[in-house]
Write a structure and sequence with these properties.
267 residues, alpha/beta, Rossmann fold, binds zinc ion
């Protein structure tokens, strides 16, 4: 069984949805997507520039989490995957300190460093991994784009890799951040040793199913693209770039840990 960690609804389908479908349909692998930062926002909402900006952009009211969870479930169904959604953890834009102060009030802070008062990194370490005894592979965001929620999930995956040495841990390229020039290379700098690229060849059907699944993320499409057609074109152009302009592929990065105590990417 393969477990895909998704910081937000849409991250796994956008970044590696064709692989999820391919693994299930071509190799009979059971794939589970664990979506983490998708809980309901607090009431009242933190009154911050980023909450105002994103709620206006998503245009789905003051309680977008429920709809985003629904979009996620529908997309997973198309990908032949099972989805598990954590409903108690919220997106970073809603998280506050113990004193109730917003931790990530603006656009710069959500792409900055993890706030020292953010309770989530420690909470995740105490969270049991579903299906652990059946898992062969764990997939996590590489951290491209530096979104704090993606950094937190990446760090959790590195921690899990240390705890479970037999588990193969692969990092996917966070799309659409990954299409920016040099963004993947910048994300690599976090890791102390080299990463090995793992290219997933795909069938035409895998790509088609991925694009179909993504149509369910109606609230998010408008954040990044002017239309579904533009989204489809951009995604395929990136996948072609990854496949060396020959074919459409998705790329993962495997961190090879040595046997020393000093683990990759951890300080
Ligand atoms: Zn995300």
């Amino acid at each position: 069984m393969r477990l895909f960690l998704s910081p937000h609804p849409d991250d796994v389908p956008l970044s590696c949805g064709a692989t999820v479908y391919h693994l299930r349909e071509s190799q009979g692998e059971a794939c589970v997507i664990l979506t983490l930062m998708s809980g309901d926002p607090p009431d009242p909402l933190p009154d911050t520039p980023i909450v105002r900006e994103l709620h206006a952009r998503w245009a789905i009211g003051d309680h977008p989490a429920a709809l985003r969870r629904e979009e996620d479930e529908q997309a997973a169904l198309v990908l032949s995957a099972k989805t598990i959604i954590h409903t108690r953890v919220t997106d970073c834009i809603y998280r506050t300190s113990a004193k109730g102060e917003p931790l990530y009030p603006d656009g710069a802070s959500i792409f900055g460093t993890i706030h020292p008062d953010d309770p989530l990194p420690l909470a995740l370490i105490a969270t049991p991994l579903p299906y652990l005894d059946q898992l062969t592979h764990l997939y996590a965001p590489l951290g491209v784009g530096n979104h704090v929620d993606h950094q937190i999930v990446r760090d959790w995956a590195l921690q899990l890799a240390r705890q479970h040495p037999t588990l193969e841990v692969w990092f996917y390229e966070d799309y659409p951040y990954s299409e920016q020039e040099s963004a993947v290379e910048t994300a690599h700098k976090f890791y102390r040793t080299s990463l090995t690229p793992m290219l997933q060849p795909l069938r035409e059907m895998d790509v088609l199913i991925k694009l179909t699944a993504l149509q369910h993320y109606r609230s998010q499409i408008s954040s990044f693209w002017s239309s579904i057609e533009e989204m489809d074109q951009k995604i395929q152009a990136y996948m072609r770039r990854v496949g060396g302009q020959q074919q459409l592929m998705e790329r993962f990065w495997r961190v090879q840990f040595d046997n020393s105590k000093d683990r990759e990417g951890e300080s």
